Structure formats: C-alpha cells, structure tokens
Amino acid sequence: MDIIVLTTLVASLFLVIGVAEPLAARLRLPYSVILAALGIVIGLGAIFFLRTELTDALNPVAEAIVGLPIRSNVFLYVFLPTLLFQVTLGMNLRRMLDDWMPILVLAVVAVVVATLGVGYALFWASSLPLTACLLIGSIVATTDPSAVVSIFRSLSAPRRLARIIEGESLLNDAAAIALFGLFMGFVMRGVPDPELGDALSRFPVLIIGGAVAGWIIARATVGLMALVHRHELAQISISIALPYLAYVCAEQLIGASGVIAVVAAGVTLNLTGPGRLPPQAWSNLREVWDLLAHWAGALIFILAALLIPRLLEEVGVADIGLICVVIAAALAARAVILFGVLPLLRLARLSPQVERPYRVAILWGGLRGAVTLALALAVTESFRVPDEIKRVVGILATGFTLYTLMVQGTTLRWVIGRLGLDRLSPMDEALSRQVVAVALQTVRADVAKTTEKYELSHDIVRSEAKRFGERLDAAVTEAEDSSDILDRDRVTLGLIALAGHERDTILSRVRERTISGKMAEQVLSDADRLIEGTRVHGRNGYQNAARSSVAYSKAFQAALRLHDRAGISAPLARITADRFELLLSQRLILRDLGAFIDGRIRRIHGRRVADLLHELLSRRIEAIETALESLRLQYPGYAEELERRFIRRTALRLEEREYDAMREDGLIGEEVHTALIQGGAHRRTMSEKRPRLDLALQRSQLVRQLPLFSDLDEASLARLARALRTRYVNAGDVVVRKDIAARSVFFIASGAVELESAGQIWRLGRGEMFGQMEILMARSLRTKVRAIAPSTLAVLDEARFRRLLRRSTSLREALRASAEKRGIDPTALIADGAE
C-alpha cells in the first residue's frame, strides 16, 4: 500500500474519531454505537465502490480501506493492552475492594455462565462440535458496559453501582479471553468433546500465572521509575512499555493469560505509583494514558466495524436462526446472574442492594464490541481451524455484536427512560437546589474579590452586585422553602454537602502538596464513603463511615498477627506508618470544615442543622485525636517527625509559590525561575520521603507513661517491658467473654473499655486495668469486657502480674481503688496478691 494513501487513511480515521464524539452527544447515543456505525458505513462504501461501474475514481481509496492490514494480533497485542491498562489506572481500587464480591460475580462467574449457556444452547441447536460451541460462547461473553456506565453517570445513579459495572469491565474481558485461549486450543487440536472439568481446572492456572507475572514485572518497572524520579517524561515512557512487556512475557514465556498480566500490572502500578512518584508526574502519566486509551478504543471499534460487511457476506437463513439462539442464551445467562445470583448475595450481605430497574438497565446495556470481533477474527485467521467452524464463528459473533450495538445500544436510553431512571428523586431535587445556592454564595465571594482587585466602576459593580444578590436570595429561599423535605432529610443534605466540601478540600491540599499522593487516595476514598453512606442511610451512614475511617483495618489486624506469630514486622511497620499519616491528614482536613458549616450550610438549613453538623464534626475530630494519641503513646517520636515533615513541605510549597508569583510579575525571568525551582529539588524530594518507623515496640517508653508503674526502678521497668504483649482492638470488639476465665491482666495504654458484670457496667480509660479481680479471687466473675474506642492494651500473664504486685505500691493502691469501685473487699485481694 502506498505510504501516502496509508497516511491519508490514518489521518481520516482520526478525523472520524473527532467527529464521532460530538455526533454521539447530539444524537444521544452511546459513543461506541456511533463508532461502529461509521465503521460499517465506511466498510460498505469501500466494497460498493470496488464493485460498482459508476466510477473508478474512488477505487484507490476503496482498495486501501479493504486492504488495511487488520489482523487479530493488531487488536490483541496493540490495542487491548492499552485499553485494559488505562482502565486499571483510572479506577479507585480501594473502593472497588468494598464490592469485590458482586464485581467477581458479574465479571468471572457471569463469563463462565455465559460461555456454558451459549455453548450448550448452540450444541443442542446445531451440528457443531461442543468445543466449537464453547469457543463461540467465550467469544460472545465479553461485554462492553461502558455505554451503561456513561449513562448511569449522566443520570446521577449511585456511584457504587457505576463502580461495580466498571469493575466488571476490568475483569470481564480478561476472564473471557482466558477461556477463549483454552477452548481455542481444543479446537485447533481437533478435540470435539473435551472433559469440561479438566478444561475449567486449567482456567485458574492461567489466571494465577498471569497475575503473578504482571505483579513481578510491574514491581520491577515501578522501581525503575522511582530511580528516574526527576525525569517525568522518562517515567511516562517506561509506563508505556509496562503493559506490553507484561502481556508478551505472560503469553510467550510462561504460557499464562496475557490480559490477566496486564490487569495485574495496572493494579500494581495504581496501588504503588502514587507513593513512589511525584504527584504531578502521576497526574500527567494518567492523562497521557487517558488519551492513548481514547484513541485505541476508538480505532479498535472503527477497524473492527470495517470487517463486519466481509464477515457477514456468506450469512444464510440457518445462520440467522443460530444468531437468535446466541442472543437468547446470552441474555438468559446474564439475567440468571442479575436476577438470581445478585439477590442471593444481597441476602448474604455480600453485595449492595441493586434495584430491579437498574438490573434491567445493566441487562440491556451489556453491549458487545471490538473485543468480540477481534476474537472472532483470530479464529477466522487460524489455518488450524476447520473452514466451516471459521465461517460459523465469524457470522455468529459478528451478527450478535451487530444486534447488541444497533438494537440494544440505540434503545438503551429509551429503556432507561421507561424505567424511570432519568428522573431525579425528591432528595436529588432538593440537593440540586442546595448545590445552586452554595455555588452562588461562593461565586459572589469570588466576584467581589475580582471587582476589588481590578478597581472597576463603582456604579457598575453596585448594579451587578444587586442583580446577582437578588438571584442568590431567590436560590437560597428556594433551598430553604422545600416543603417536601423533612428535617432529617435536611440533615442528610447538609452532611452530603459537608462531605462534598471535604472532598474538594482534599483535592486542594493534594495540589498544594500538603497531603501526599499516596494518602490522597485513601482520604478521598473515605470522603466518597461518607457521601455514599449518607445518601443511602442518612446520618447513621455518615457516622458509620466516619467510624470505619479511624478503625483498625483488616489489613492491620492481619499484619499484627503476622508480626506476633511469625516475627515479620515489615507489613505492620508500613501499615502503622500509613495509619499515622492518614490520621494526621484527616485531622488537617476536618479542622477546615467548621467555616463551611457556618458560611454555607447555616444560611440554607438553619441554626439547628448547622449545630448538629458541628456536633458530628467534633465527634469525628475527637475520634481522630484519640486514635492519634494511641499511636503517640507507642511511638512518641514518630508523630513529631511526621509533623516536622508537614511543616517542611508547607514551607517549600510557600517558597515555590513566591517564586511563581515573582515570575508572573516579571521580577525574575524563566531561566532564574527554573534555577530556583531546581535548586530546591533535593529539599523537595527529601520532604516527600516519609521517615522510617522503627517497629521495635518501644515498650519501655510505653510502660513509663502508665501511672500504675511510676514507682518501679529502671531494672523492673525493663523486665516489665519485655514481658508485656501489645494488643490492638477496635471499637465494639469483645476483649474478654463471660464464659472464659481470665488468665491475664490488661492495662489500657490508650482508648477505653466497658465492663459488664452482674447487671452492672463500668467504664475504664487510659491508665486503668482489668482482669486482675478474676485472677486474685481465683474464680470467674463472669465479666464481659468490650472496647468502646480503638484501644491499645498491654497484656501481662498471671505469674508476672503477681510478682509485679508484690513490688509496686502504686499498683496495689490502684487495685484497692478498683475493688472498692466494684464493691469488693480489697483487703483479701491485696493479701492474696502479696503471697
């Protein structure tokens, strides 16, 4: 093909891509449908001009289109890794872990069900061998839910639901392509009826092998990117190589799934990149990948659609009947998952509630696209596949894809309208009015600053201010006078607005580098949980999300067990350091929210709602301070180092801001500005580096801070520190059960617990102890102990406690006071303990 013709054709394809997006918006159709339609039109036009005798002028262009070197390897090795890798970078993986069960069901289980359902339906309806039918089933099991996701976003559907569908799109193609490779091997070897159990048993091997390969390559790549941290373009270039290296190495070197390797590599970079790369470099890297994926996705749709006229040239009546079988079986398989399995997961509390209208929309929005066509093309290109199977695979996959795009895709928005999903609820209507009122208040303040800065005409300013003030008053009045909004809903609206402002504040702090990129992802996830929890469960949802943000995570508990039982401390040190920085970041953000309540929410919802929000905010701040104090008691020097790091980063940020202002004012030139910024590069790098947390538990310092041991000498303190074990508990955790006799004494280093015995309740805080009564009275008091705050406990066994009691006067006094508080004669206790 002539290079000029090829260049012109490629440029024309990008022109089509540029036109397709605004055309899709104007016609209110999914972008993928428009791309496919344009590709089909171009393909039909090329075939028409080659076969018509009307003119030969367009024959060179038509021949170039028909002769494009479109092969399945172009899709699978060039475009597909780009698309999968970008999807992983753009997802909030921490939030997706909250919904891992429905994501796995929709992505992996649904793929297996669709493959088997379509495969066996074709086997019963045709004369094809079972392996060929299962191969077709795996090809059509790949879904492209981007259309329903984009529409859900435009309809303000629950974010959690859109996130589940995004997670499906991430894993769906990977699982389906892994199955495709499995059954393709059977077809090429001529195995007509494989053992299904043996076939599916190889499926996990493909996935695990690909995941391990992707993780190893990504870790090595991230390390290389960290070495060139001063060269942003070099980091972006290295990231471009990552998905292709992962794909090729997994496929060619170890025989695992390349797409799984790409997904694993993207997930690894998503989780580790923000902590290893500068924030601006990470942001620019994601923008580059967004653009690459936009081009790759559009090109793969257009190029695949060009093939549709050729793949359907030999279609017959019997083939149309088989296409109908595929359509019915695919829809039935997806319906089984959405209407059968998901409700069961909901009953088991493993999945959020997905309302029936949304499930119908997801069912109808399961479009197929370029990946399905690319897999079908791979079959038609293989010389080891029988010709009849090639023909049927090409026709069925193409016909089914065409149906989903041109029937389901064009009617999806109409279906959503019929389901009533395009109408705002009363809560959302009220929220929109509140958003307008809050936004106009912010705009008025910014406009006032602008007019003052530029010294505009006083009469014009006063006239426009009056006009804008009237609009603002009307918006505030409309927000205040919503008669259909109950008081509890006003609280909910206020909390949603507060959580939204918290999220905006976090983003602002990240841009200013006050919060590191690694912590930004975590605090943003917490803010999203606040918003979603409030929208679904009101004030209780907000409080539950706030408590979970400061509680000890499951990962923390697992790392603690690994440290205690295996002596491996690195995971616990890392998670503890993350917790330290996270709590400091949260405290920094929350202290800025009070002004928003007074300046925005109070005017719209009144004093009572504002006061309630202040109370809830104060509780959150108190919980964070308590959690921070718990960590300070164990690692007193580390909190100080983190605060010093915060001050240094703030000073460097302000210094750079001054240099930027001087450049904008013309006081210094670009060369001087660059030199000044580069001069502080080392200090900036050091300020980003987090100090190392030494996890030698510093028990001696912890012991010294407990008043119970104030009279012990240094030798005794050292022995006690070696004997103590540390235990962490969340609020609500049961520390001691009624039916288990105590064999240890617990000292509260931080937090608080609640004791329940014989119908009475006592609360104990920092510096107090429990468990000693049961030991000294030599019988169970049937006492239940429950933590009422995240707490750190120092645990001492019975024998060491008795020896300590004989040496410590202050401990005996504390024991006497505790016994009197619980109505127990302390004389016998002290005498018994002294024996």
From TrEMBL:
Pfam families: cNMP_binding, Na_H_Exchanger
Annotated Cyclic nucleotide-binding domain residues: 708-822
Transmembrane segments: 6-24, 31-50, 70-91, 103-123, 129-149, 170-191, 203-228, 240-271, 291-308, 320-341, 361-380, 392-416
Localization per Swiss-Prot or TrEMBL: Cell membrane
Membrane topology: Multi-pass membrane protein
Main location per the UniProt record: membrane
Keyword Transport assigned: yes
InterPro entries documented for this protein: Cation/H_exchanger_CPA1 (IPR018422), Cation/H_exchanger_TM (IPR006153), cNMP-bd_dom (IPR000595), cNMP-bd_dom_sf (IPR018490), RmlC-like_jellyroll (IPR014710)
Coiled-coil regions listed in the entry: none
Highest taxon above the source species: Bacteria
Keywords, ordered alphabetically: Cell membrane, Ion transport, Membrane, Sodium, Sodium transport, Transmembrane, Transmembrane helix, Transport
Protein name: Cation:proton antiporter
Organism: Tropicimonas omnivorans
